[in-house]
Amino acid sequence: MSYSARPFGLVTASALLTAGLLHCSSSNTDSGSVSCSSVSPDAATTTSPSTCYPDNDGINNETYVIDIAVDDTGFSSTGGDDAGAKNILATQNESQVTLTLTNNGTKPHGFQVGCVSVCSSYPTLPAGCSPEACFPADSTIAPIAPGAKATITFDTPTPDGLIYPFSSSEPADSTVPGLNQGQWSLM
User: What digits encode the pLDDT tens for the residues 72-117?
Assistant: First the structure.
């Protein structure tokens, strides 16, 4: 299934509530499990992601085409029903994303997704699982010049039910709120 023209959009409160309720019951009662919060983020990861983070909604392997623009104040959708919506992306986990970033600003800007704790969705983890999840390195777009476009393709991480922060990868943008408040929801 391919999705386009709706990369941004406000995720409804009911969808977030439903996702949150689904994840409340996802704890693992296996005797080999440990409290997620007791695992160091730099612990050795030896267990497969599918064992560590069972898919809570059973939906993945989707395909998304996302077109976004960045300017000197923030990110926005470049078309479709959600044109102009700012700073929210929503996709499934373990899905392929082709993201095109267009710089409509007067300075260089880029795109990067940060790491998050998995503990809210996976309160217990099998031994060898990381308590932190990150998007892959190839999901980052280095700063591009004003008027330029860059396109990347990558797979979203396995842990779902989480909101990952995204921002501009340009160091000079670190003090611009609209370039540091993005949220990518993996359902």
Answer: 999 998 765 555 567 889 999 999 999 999 999 999 999 999 999 9
CA-to-CA distance for 187 and 182, rounded, in angstroms? Answer: 16
* Short-list 166, 176, 116, CA closest to 140: 166
DSSP 113-154: E--EESTTT-SEEETT--SEE---GGG-EEEE-TT-EEEEEE
pTM: 0.80
End-to-end CA distance of the chain, in Å? 16
The pLDDT, as a whole number, for residue 75 is 94
Query: How is residue 35 annotated by DSSP?
Result: E
Structure tokens at 157: 């991480």
Tokens at residue 115, please?
């790491």
H-state helical runs in the chain: 13-24, 49-52
CA–CA separation, 112 vs 168, rounded Å? 6
Backbone Cα Rg of the chain: 17
